[in-house]
Amino acid sequence: MALKLQLLAAAVVAVAASCRPGLADPAVGALPGLPVAGLAIGFYNESCPGVEDLVLAEMRAIVEKDRTLGPALLRFMFHDCLVRGCDASIMLESRSNKGEQDSDASYGLRGYDEIEQIKAKVEAACPLTVSCADIIILAARDAVYLSNGPRYAVETGRRDGTVSAKFDADNDLPPPFSNIVDLKTYFSVKGLGWKDLVVLSGSHTIGSAQCSTFASSRLYNFSGKGVQDPSLDKAYAACLREACEPGLEDDATAVALDPTSPYEFDLSYYRRVRGDKGLLLSDQALMDDRWTRGYVERMAAAASPDEFFADYAAAMTNMGRLEVLTGDSGEIRETCAAYVD
């Protein structure tokens, strides 16, 4: 299967348009995964006490200044962890335009300056102690918390990688037009199961996507047939067509992934997907598999987000364990940005 990979979380930018009994498969759905040697909750308790409070304070200031940066920094973790693992390789730059930042998958990615801002504060308190990889993880957790989501415990102890390749980003990040088979394949290659997929997709309860990431596949040229996706709610589609021009490939107009509550970490994403109002094909694709559909339906009907919050903490922990560098591997950089060539 030849897969052209772009991104799991669609381009998260300022919202410029406003459209408004559980299954279990223990073979692939168990959460959480196995612990990773070298990672631990409170890893910096002695070497840099208070670092998590420091990161939260910086994140609070960042989000108060621009609330679109919360979802953006959550997306940032996905782009780091799903490509070469959680090693801050997304922060590395390439003079020859061959780094992860140069991939089409990284189009619209925001948060580079904010991660560097947080790193500078941490360096002032604890020089050459806390990795950029851990800062990205902590910032994502706090982005969720500052959107009224859970503030779950985060494992730390990662070290920073020194390799960043455009090829990896091109091939490791599922595009927004992925079907359910492709999505499960992308996740399984990373050692993540169907439950990680459906739970982490819930990140789309906050943030927005540019028209260029969904308009063609959802509104104007579904399956290359020049028609609207038949699975998309017709009233919602009409609203989206008011925001997204047909035939405009670089349309940067931003539409909320969950217009019901674009800055609230809640269950409305699942309710919209159940109602055929998932913005991306990859969102609506969750209804095409019995396991992911069962979870969507249960969350859509839930009176409380408690189960989702607990599952989200476990799924983010699983993603945070991907291909990490610990111990003597990797490095701790003074600044997160560095040239790889």
UniProtKB/TrEMBL annotation:
Its EC number is 1.11.1.7. Its cofactor is Ca(2+); heme b. Pfam families: peroxidase. Transmembrane segments: none annotated. The record marks 75 as: Transition state stabilizer. GO terms for molecular function: heme binding; lactoperoxidase activity; metal ion binding. The active site is at residue 79. It catalyses: 2 a phenolic donor + H2O2 = 2 a phenolic radical donor + 2 H2O. Residues 1-24 form the signal peptide. GO terms for biological process: hydrogen peroxide catabolic process; response to oxidative stress. InterPro entries: Haem_peroxidase, Haem_peroxidase_sf, Peroxidase_pln, Peroxidases_heam-ligand_BS, Secretory_peroxidase. Substrate binds at residue 174. Disulfide bonds join 48-126, 81-86, 132-336, 211-244. One of its GO terms (cellular component) is extracellular region. Ca(2+) 1 binds at residues 80, 83, 85, 87, 89, 100. Residues 38-340 form the Plant heme peroxidase family profile domain. CDD domains: secretory_peroxidase. It is found in: Secreted. Heme b binds at residue 204. The keyword Transmembrane does not apply. Keywords: Calcium, Disulfide bond, Glycoprotein, Heme, Hydrogen peroxide, Iron, Metal-binding, Oxidoreductase, Peroxidase, Secreted, Signal. Ca(2+) 2 binds at residues 205, 258, 266. Binds 2 calcium ions per subunit. Removal of H(2)O(2), oxidation of toxic reductants, biosynthesis and degradation of lignin, suberization, auxin catabolism, response to environmental stresses such as wounding, pathogen attack and oxidative stress. These functions might be dependent on each isozyme/isoform in each plant tissue. Belongs to the peroxidase family. Classical plant (class III) peroxidase subfamily. This is Peroxidase. It comes from Panicum virgatum.
